[in-house]
Amino acid sequence: MSKDYKDSLPISASRFMEEFMRLKRGSVSRRHFLGVTGLGLAAAVIARVPGLQGGAAYAQDLGTQMSIATWPNYHDPATFEAFTAATGVAVEVNVFGSNEEMLAKLQAGASGWDLFVPTNYTISTYVKLGLIDELDIAKAPNFSPSTQNTRFTNEGMVDGKTYALPKNWGTTGFAVNTGKIKTPMTSWKDFFELAQTEADGRAMVHDYQLTTIGNALVSLGYSFNSIKPEELAKAEELLIKVKPHLYAINSDYQPSMRATDAWLTMCWTNDGAQLNRDMPEIAYILGKDGGEIWTDFYAIPKDAPNKAAGYALLNFLMDPAVAVKEHIANGAPTTDSRVIALLPAEITSNKIVYPDEAALTPLEFGAAVTLTDPGRAELMARFKSA
Amino acid sequence: MPLAPATKRNLVTSALVAPAAAWLFVFLVLPFIAILVFAFGERAPEGGYQAAFTFAQFANLGSRAAAFRNTMMIAPVGAFLCLIVAYPVAYFLAVKASPKYRLVLVSLVVVPFWTSLLVRTYAWMYILGSRGLPNLLDMVGISDVRMLNTPGAVLLGIVYGYLPLMIMPIYVSLEKLDLRLLEASADLGAKPLSTFFGITLPLSLPGVMTGTALVTILLLGEYLIPQLLGGGKVFFIGNALVDLFLQSRNWPFGSAIAVTLVAVVVLVLLVAMRIAWRFAGTRQVDLV
Amino acid sequence: MTSASVNDIEFRSVTKRYGAVTAVTDINLAVPKGAFVALLGPSGCGKTTCLRMIGGFEQPSEGEVQIGGAAMAGIPPYRRPVNMVFQHYALFPHFDVEANVAYGLKQMRPKIEAAEISRRVGAALEMVRLGGFGKRRIHEMSGGQQQRVALARALVNKPKVLLLDEPLAALDKKLRTAMQIELQTLQRELGITFVLVTHDQEEALSMSDKVCVMSAGRIVQFASPQEVYDRPANIFVADFVGKTNRLSGTLENGNAVRLSSGALMPVRDTLLAPGTALTLAVRPEAIRLAKAAEAAGGIAGTVTHRIFLGSSVEYSVAVSGLGDLLVTAERQSLAADGLAEPGDPVRLVFDPSGAHVFPA
Question: Residue A384 is nearest to which of B126, B131, B232, comparing CB atoms?
Fold first, then answer.
């Protein structure tokens, strides 16, 4: 047998550590896994270089330390090092598994964050609960409203006031291993059908009500954000019918897709791009019947202990030269045309990262009520325990 | 006036106990009181807690009946499987293993605890995944074997993860067992199986009960193994709690479930102690 | 006559090794039916190994053990017609007294009826004078009572042979003496063979019909208690059984020994050649003590200690060239208790029949 015995081993030690470190960095799934494992509460201080004095641009006293709450593997670590070098402010990075967790922590008070990264559909809730302040855009002169694609940035504004500035946007589609599944797929209807037939035992849905229920609704012709009981009942019926055929209910789908344990999964843009980059047979598809589009923002908590530094970092991140490095590191598309201009062609031409306008048209932004609706939470619990 | 010796002793005792008591109060009693209060409250419209006094959360427990049912079934079954696997190991370690190697062997049982259960369970994902054992089976012609994300994988993970917790108490009680009792039993005409069920098992019952109660209680709160090895399709109370606190942020309902879970744990402990108690009178000097 | 019909236990060239260590070597032993045999020896002499080979807890490395004429090779303990009273009794702590005694009966096949078990258990407890203690927990019983429970638990099964492993070692002296008599009585009443392992020579001599003295894995002497005491097979037996004065000398002629001190000592006729170097074992009671002024002959010495033992008095007498000798005097044989005091010069007169001669 010509096959190296090592190929037959379940996994080599180095490969396991690699996978595990990837998991710890969070690239496999930013939203859920770390929340489940508790790793999300781990905090890392990226840079602590005291004594470096800020340049002229930061004449104001910024202190020596600040804290940001964000998603795992969502930034280029060099960004924070550069910020510390420029300002003398060390950045403590707290990573979280879900918007809900961030909300819970902020709601509990004394989070100590000076900047955090909420997703579009949570911002109005933060405003309603009085957890974030209106931003003083004058303190972030690098932000350029005129070069923003407002399609993605609107939800940073509530009642005409700007509460959050955009970081990047993305979509929720599905990834399919075309080496295993030959039937062409174009919609969420296809997704749920093939999950019961050609991909029986090989399909994964998110362990996240917003996307799992939302996409089920879409496949039935309803809105991604529906909270109508009769539509939710139909979605529940579908999900419970599909459940026995599923490989897993897990937002940590990259390992299973890479191992080809799973052939089909709900998927976020950045994961889709990564999977496709490493395994070209894995395609990333946006439902022509609909799906989710989302934007992550930067916002400053009302009780931020070092707002000056929060603004300084926000402004730093809005600098296109910084933002382009962030883009390359995390993979999700930008909302700022100044950044697009700086990107290499292989990124801007990647249809996973920058889909055609037509593909985006049927997609919906998640709604605030979708996140907090108790009916959807209970539906998810019934689905998972069925 | 110098303190009376008894008073002085009491003061010393208090001083020694105080840190632990304070720790327990701050990190166990207070949070439990908070959870108890939450359990009678309401979910705020945007999630979290809103003050109220209602039994609605407890009335709603039925909506997690499936989670309770799964947990109540898997916890004892998992503990029992652990017991079946652990007992022979503990017996071997305590009775059969050469004293020369015993310490090393016992250490080997404990060594996995030096690594987090998360990492070890993650390793199982690779072993059971299609590039692991199924791949090896495929090479000898047995193809398309599914191991990961099956109830069997969850049980395997449970037995693997909790085995040391079962082995150690049984080992300790078997190690105290006077081997002459086994000889006496054989001498009186008992065949090996009769000796095991008549003498060995009853005398190791305190260890068996301790291990079973320990594993059962921990399993009642388990959520990681079903999530990772069961593909999230097996829903335990632990998973329900994670979702309620971190996803839908229905703290009052989560609290009510947590309080109920604590009540169940207390019940399990009481039953276990009852059974162990019956044999407690037997742990006499002549055993040691 | 065939040995099987007469001997309950027979060892045929039995050797037992544990790895490189040989515990017993070439043991040949026949225990007649109904005998009370004591295996006596210092710890490590192999006596317990022999007992465990009868019980079936050890298998001989070589040779064969027979019980009631049947070879026992490969027969596990639970199929052997013997029962053992274990050292420290090994009573089941989770059972009450009754359940302990009933344990063996409950193992029997065909099954014995509960009422019959209960009757036999009651009788066994009566036999060891523990009637009415059936419901007691083991830890509620005293050491002596536990001893009797262990006895009842073994005897209730009506074994061919009862094995006793240091059964009295854990009891205080008074209880031990009482139990010695009780065990002897029981054995006579039941008429079954008892094999007792002990390191206590007094216990062995007082209870058994025959004593098997063991040393370093071998049988040194197998004889009646009197014979072992009066005619020890070698200096080891003489030393180990009873008290002995050890002297050395050279055979002068057929019945006198020139001691190392130069004194001449009468001995029984021996077939050894004159001039043979000898070791003598002289029992303390075979030496008569006389006041120096009142006796001629014998060996001169000085009393160093006087130990009052109740029925007898023990003297330690320093003899030049021989060291300290032990002399026992029965009290009724003395004119007065104060026959001699420490410091008194005395003369020692040897009784030739109480001196045992062994080639050195």
Answer: B232
Question: Domain C243-359 - what CATH class?
Answer: mainly beta
For residue B197, give its domain range.
Answer: 31-287
Inter-chain contact B181–C90, Cβ cutoff 8 Å? yes
For residues C102 and C121, the answer to whether their CB atoms sit within 8 Å is yes
Q: Give the CATH number, domain containing residue B147.
A: 1.10.3720.10
Peptide bond into B112 cis (omega under 30): no
- Topology match between the domains A13-169+294-348 and A170-293+356-385: yes
Per-residue model confidence as pLDDT tens digits over C290-332: 877 766 677 888 899 888 887 788 889 999 888 898 988 877 5
Instruction: State the total domains in chain B.
Output: 1
- Contacts C103 to B, Cβ<8 Å: 185, 188, 190, 198
Which residues are A204's β-sheet partners? A248, A265
Q: How far is CA B196 from CA A187, B174, B186, C91, in A?
A: 63, 12, 10, 16
Distance CA C132, CA C190 (A): 22
Q: What is the pLDDT of residues B224-272, one digit of tens each?
A: 898 889 888 888 999 999 888 877 888 899 999 999 999 988 988 888 7
Q: Model confidence over C249-274: pLDDT tens digits?
A: 888 877 788 888 888 888 887 778 88
Q: How big is the CA angle at A23 (ends A21 and A27), to the nearest 5 degrees?
A: 110
Q: Which CATH number fits domain A170-293+356-385: 3.30.1360.30, 3.40.50.300, 3.40.50.10800, 3.40.190.10?
A: 3.40.190.10
CA distance B279 to chain C (A): 7
CB atoms within 10 A of CB C254: 13
Output helix, strand, coil percentages for chain A, rounded to the nearest 5: 45, 15, 40
* C to A contact (≥3 Cβ pairs closer than 8 Å): no
pLDDT bracket for residue B5 (50, 70, 90): confident
In this structure, of B4-13, B90-99, C110-119, C246-255, the range with the lowest mean pLDDT score is B4-13
In a domain, B13, yes or no: no
* Of A67, A136, A145, A80, nearest in space to A106 by CA: A67
Compare CB distances from B281 to C57, C86, C137 and report the shortest one's residue: C137
Contacts of B188 in chain C (CB under 8 A): 78, 83, 103-104, 107, 153-154, 157
Percent of chain A topping pLDDT 90: 65
Higher-pLDDT residue of B208, A25: B208
Taking the domain C3-239, which CATH number applies?
Answer: 3.40.50.300
Average pLDDT estimate for A22-50: 39
Helix (H, G, I), strand (E, B) or coil at A254: helix
Residue linked to tokens 């010695």:
C180
On average, the pLDDT of chain B sits at 87
Query: Which residues contact residue A203 at a Cβ distance below 8 angstroms, ignoring those fewer than 6 apart?
Result: A191, A194, A195, A242, A245, A246, A247, A262, A263, A264, A265
Q: Assign A77 a pLDDT band (cuts: 50, 70, 90).
A: confident
